[in-house]
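# step 3/5: fold
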Amino acid sequence: MDKRETTNLIKRDQSAVASTIYRYTDIAFQRGQGVYLYDIEGREYLDFVSGIATMNVGHSHPKVVEAICEQAQLLIHGACHIGYMEPYIAMMESIKSVAPGDLKNGKGILVNSGSEAVETALKLARFVKNRPMVLAFTDSFHGRSMGALALTSSSPLYRKNLTGLLSGVYHTPYPYCFRCPLKHDSPDRCGIACLNLVEKALETVVPVEDLAAIIVEPIAGEGGYIVPPAGFLSGLREICDRHDIMLIADEIQTGFGRTGKMFAVEHWDIVPDVICLAKAMGGGLPLGAILGEAEYLDEWPPAAHGTTFGGNPVACRAGSVTLEIIKSENLMQNAEKLGDYIKDKLISLQKDLPIIGDVRGKGLMIGAELVNKDGTPANEIIKEVIKEVASQGVVLTKCGASTIRFAPPLIINEDQLNEGLDIIIGILKKYQW
């Protein structure tokens, strides 16, 4: 196949785009439809990435496209500070209608991205609680802007040569049971130990009267699709209740059906005080939000926070329709069913494919951690696997040091899933020892 168009596009990119924009593949995408992407030469690829867990309803869903076109003909931008816009209000009402627990009666703010949602939640917590500190976890990813980056700890690369990040942030270990930071061999012991370290931090380093919030990903996304053991999130909820600390759940990657529930906290019957949202929320357009207890949001005075583009009416229309599609097309049920299918299939292969060190996840948020013969992360092998899989028509990315990220659109069916899995497994079989 003639690759001259792609080669030319890459050359143009290299002369115009900063090298910090890293690419997993050398594919030049032109369009997407359903669970497929197409490059500029017309080749078809199964999308197991979903724009990094964003295209939950698939590419160019007809109802999303219709809503975007209709709204674009009415009003593209108005700015939420200038006046009221129905799509903004409808989007917040849609989020509230599916929110867990008392958050159904909450209030929120629309923003442009996940990082901005985290920044907004940080500001809210520090303002309302009038406390300077925030506790986060290792292996977490909350964004790359300077405040959110102070919380992020999934890779030292993100912090390299940077000082003066948001002060008052303290980290304790996330219960990464496959690679327990405390070297425990039991998920139960690991989870309890990590809770004990939170308690110890509050006794020795972080004065509770200075701690505004604890922020946590219900499933650690970029850190490796790490699922915490039972009792960890409920333990955090209890600690926050006991000390009047705000519990912030970062559901930017886990939200809107990705894990088989509308929000991942529902797997553990936890209701946070504030929830951060983005990614799948906009149906592919930039849209984020926080939703919190009304009593907290009502304490924030007018103009204490704001945004020019947040709650853009076109993005809001796309978001409202996306949420309706997730519900009406039973995509959460599909995510749960096919996610279990992926896990079962990969687990059954572990004996014959020892390169698969661990399989974990919920819904269509599944991680398969690749390991070297000595059990260390297969950092180099996974790069080769991603590129070779792409050459055979499947788009993948990694998370953590060496975990394959399975995050296809929630509309995927079993035949499409098997087609991609067969290619991936066939390539993994080449890495034997």
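# step 4/5: annotate
Residues 243 and 406 are 38 Å apart (CA to CA).
# step 5/5: archive (pending)
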